[in-house]
Write a structure and sequence with these properties.
The protein is an alpha/beta fold and 128 residues long. Helices cover 48% and strands 18% of the residues. Helix 1 links the parallel strand 1 (4-8) and strand 2.
Length: 128
């Protein structure tokens, strides 16, 4: 069974590139272009892992991260931040809100794939 990934980014070209590459790697992919849509996708599609940008319309990535951790406790789903925000405060805030990994843009697809594989490998250890 393929793991389902949610890609959340407001840049269409970023989503298209990641979606194509991740599908090629065998993942089931769903997408969202803003924070509100991301929360709807989490509820409706129940992804196994989320790739989350921070600078989003409607609700920013910090708000999405916080709401996912507070309102979707049915299972542990790794959240990887993929953002152009490089300030230490942003990184600290995300880890304080229980992000699992933080990658700064621009980053290579290899780093994204490595992060995804690592986080997915930890899922069985987090099951209750």
């Amino acid at each position: 069974m393929a793991h389902k990934l949610l890609i959340v980014d407001d840049e269409k070209d970023v989503i298209e590139f990641l979606e194509k590459r991740l599908k090629h790697e065998g993942y089931d992919v769903v997408t969202a272009f803003d924070g509100e849509q991301a929360l709807t996708r989490v509820k409706e599609d129940n992804p196994d892992l989320i790739l989350l940008d921070l600078m989003l319309p409607k609700k920013n990535g910090f708000e999405v991260l916080k709401e996912v951790r507070e309102n979707f406790k049915d299972k542990w789903r790794p959240i990887i931040i993929v953002s152009a925000k490089t300030e230490l405060d942003s990184v600290k805030t995300c880890y304080g809100l229980e992000a699992d990994h933080y990658l700064t843009k621009p980053c290579t697809i290899e780093n994204i794939l490595r992060g995804i594989r690592t986080m997915i490998s930890l899922i069985p250890m987090r099951l209750n």
